[in-house]
Predict the structure.
Amino acid sequence: MSFNELGLSPHILRAVKELGYEQATPIQQQAIPAILAGQDVLGGAQTGTGKTAGFTLPMLHRLLANHGRGGRRQVRALVLTPTRELAAQVGESIVKYAHHLPFRTLVAYGGVSIKPNLDAIKLGIDILVATPGRLLDLLTQGALTLSALEVLVLDEADRMLDMGFITDIRRIMKALPEERQTLLFSATFSDDIKALADDLLKTPTLIEVSPTNSTAEQVNQRIIKVDRERKRELLSHMIGRNNWQRVLVFVRTKQIADRLAEQMVKDGLDTVAIHGDKTQGARNRALADFREGKVRVLVATDIAARGLDIDDLPHVINFELPQVAEDYIHRIGRTGRAGRGGEAISLVSLDEHDQLKAIEALIGLSIPSEIQEGYEPSGKPTRQTLPGNKQLQSPSRERGHANARHNSGKNSAGKGQSAKPAGKRPAKGSGSKPAAPARKKEVRGEDTGFAPLRRLPKAQRDDYQDNSNEE
Ligand code: AMP
């Protein structure tokens, strides 16, 4: 369906055209008419489906219809997001879609000075995109009033609840007028989400685009079975042999993210890690470098990667399967965006069997699996060990090496070259004689600060800890 058929203002259609969008995506086809009609919406859609334009375009249309009626500029639309990255991306999208409209948009999130937010609010803003913690700060400082709010959007509401923002959300709701339009988007629908939707939405229109179908159609998924302690070696080998230039790698904990990035740099691959312990500046820089091709591999935890919108990301690697099956869908949704093809490869060790079954049950597919020559699994379950556990250090010392990143130079394989472990034997399967298996040294989680995955309670998962201080 073309955008022209949806009844949007010509100023909005012009921006859409300039962005090169030709057809509305399924979520846009459903959401735009409902939102234009003033209905509340409960949307089941993940990032990558065109959801942001799905709620922003009709929201802008409605704001435009009532524009200039009030006196002083006040916030008329609020978009709440769970993470800073998502706030920044949604903000960027809104600015693009509103390019020909007279609205001011502010993106506000924690971890950076509040002063610029206060200055922008003084000048007057129409649209606010914010994470819950920073919004509450602004509200409690009396810097902001939301009494003129017309539209509230909760984006990735499931993630907001996962991250423990429910109390913040309820506090924010008290500052909002009863009379408003509310749009709630969530990739999954737990009982908690349903309860929140019951509270916040009035006879909502339900909109759902199946993530499983679109995921299955657009992303080529496969599994490579490999022993846990050989995953890093295999990963570097695959990136080098295939000459991949932009690869997003998912891990489950901050420590593993840092450690893996550090080791991949030693393998000659420009790599950087992002997770909740990094400053916002470091996260933004890492993302910009990855987008611009200055960094070839980005290692990320689930929360840090949430909502990342990276154009042209052909390869997503699950270095470890996620603990929560839904995260698999979020992860692989980073590739194959807006109809483009993509490949998601999961390196799966024997101890991840249960997670794999849960993921396959969720997506309703059996993911094809294969074994790489030279990396055949031993068939023996291994305890949780560090990726490529050769040079073990205490966690405090590792932290000193955090955010391992080498810019080009002698250590870097550089573009168009294949990676090989620096100064060491060639990676296995690279054509030369297979090297001896990596030295195995089992390490207990307790010894290293790496808790064994199976015993790690949900509440202690890496990024769940981040979130308490996400702001
Ligand atoms: P989102 O799901 O909102 O994160 O959007 C995913 C990506 O799809 C973004 O890069 C958008 O710019 C792009 N996009 C959104 N709608 C369309 C469309 N109708 N046609 C082409 N690309 C789109």
